[in-house]
Design brief:
Length: 235
């Protein structure tokens, strides 16, 4: 929730800027028509698309499963062209066809991302755009809510296998301070995985994945934002 962001912190306003840049990237590439903002959270991204890209956005259907987030969004980001819907995105069945689907920082949270892509793509028109982002450096070890570690290759393969064509990519980098993370000096790091050493003992492959990432990428998280175009009917 932008109104509650801690200023001058990497996990605060710097993270918010990354999210805003993703929505602006999406907005610049949208097809004219209806947008589904899947896992919309507090709704600021839906509002950004509706207000700053209104020449292309006829309507935003913004969906999230968190009651408090949807209530906040309806209060803080109400707009005549936005409909906020409280629903489980894996069970969401819209009654309209979308020209665009926006789904940012979500796939890594889902048990079966490939199944979800095929599910929601049923409601995207042929030629429509699926705009999506994920972290492509390890995150499962630090974030207990992440169920997958993606690389750029495995991320792209998900959409290629589902019948999508890559259109455009944007890469993002966010440096982090190791001591701030380890000692949880920032408010948002309080939700990071507790007992990470035990996690590594139980999953040594994740430890070596982290070491490899530190050697290659240093102390920074990397993200990819991609635009894929639907090429065929999803079955």
């Amino acid at each position: 929730m932008p109104d509650m962001i801690e200023k001058n912190q990497q996990t605060g306003d710097e993270s918010l800027k990354l999210h805003m840049d993703r929505y602006h990237f999406a907005g610049k590439h949208l097809l004219k028509g209806i947008v589904a903002d899947i896992a919309c959270g507090a709704g600021y991204g839906s509002y950004l698309l509706a207000t700053q890209y209104g020449d292309k956005v006829l309507q935003v259907i913004a969906v999230d499963n968190d009651e408090s987030s949807i209530s906040y969004a309806k209060s803080r980001y109400a707009h005549p062209n936005i409909t906020f819907v409280k629903d489980d995105i894996t069970k969401f069945i819209p009654h309209i066809e979308f020209q665009n689907i926006v789904c940012l920082e979500t796939l890594e949270h889902l048990p079966n991302p490939y199944w979800f892509i095929n599910h929601i793509a049923q409601y995207l028109q042929i030629g429509g755009l699926f705009i999506v982002s994920v972290p492509i450096t390890p995150s499962m070890d630090a974030n207990p809510f992440h169920l997958h570690d993606f690389t750029e290759r495995t991320f792209k393969k998900l959409f290629a296998d589902a019948g999508f064509k890559e259109v455009e990519l944007m890469r993002q980098v966010q440096p982090f301070n190791l001591s701030d993370v380890l000692f949880k000096k920032e408010k948002r790091t309080e939700n990071m995985r507790k007992n990470i050493l035990r996690y590594y003992v139980a999953r040594p492959a994740k430890f070596f994945l982290r070491i490899k990432s530190l050697l290659i990428d240093g102390f920074q998280n990397k993200y990819i934002v991609a635009i894929f175009q639907k090429q065929r009917t999803v079955t």
